[in-house]
Amino acid sequence: MNTFTFLPQHEGYLPYFLLMPALMAAIHTVACYVNSPTVSLTQFSGPAAPPPNGLLARVYGVKNIYTSLIRFYAAYHISNPQIYDLATLTFVGVLFLYAGEVFVYRTSRLKETAFSFVLSGSALVWMVSQREWYLS
C-alpha cells in the first residue's frame, strides 16, 4: 500500500497546502479542549483581552474544527465550486476575526497574530487568483 494514496490526487499544490492549515486547526482544537485556557488562547493576550476561561477556549475550538473540516474537504474536492468557495471564506473569516481583535477590540496583538495574517492572506490571494484553474 502506497502512503501517497491518502494525499489529494488533484493537480497543483493548493490541495496539499490546504492540508497544512486544516491539520493545524484540528490540532489547535484538541489543544483548546485539553490544555488550560491560558495556553490555548495565547493569541488573545492584548491589552483589552478578557481573562482566558474554558468557555472561550471551547468556543474557539469549535470554530477551529469546522474550519479544519471545510479545508480538509476542500483539499480532496478542490474542483467543487461550492466547497472551494467555502474554503476561501474560511480564510476571509480568519482575517476578519484577527483584524477586528487586533485593530478594533485590541484583545490581540499583532505579534501573536502575524502568522495567521500571513497564512490566511497568502491562502486568500492564492485561492482567488487560481479559482478558474482549479474549477475548470
UniProtKB/TrEMBL annotation:
It is found in: Endoplasmic reticulum membrane. It is a multi-pass membrane protein. One of its GO terms (molecular function) is protein-macromolecule adaptor activity. The chain crosses the membrane at residues 13-34, 86-105. It comes from the Eukaryota. Belongs to the ERG28 family. One of its GO terms (cellular component) is endoplasmic reticulum membrane. Pfam families: Erg28. Keywords: Endoplasmic reticulum, Lipid biosynthesis, Lipid metabolism, Membrane, Steroid biosynthesis, Steroid metabolism, Sterol biosynthesis, Sterol metabolism, Transmembrane, Transmembrane helix. This is Ergosterol biosynthesis protein Erg28. One of its GO terms (biological process) is sterol biosynthetic process.
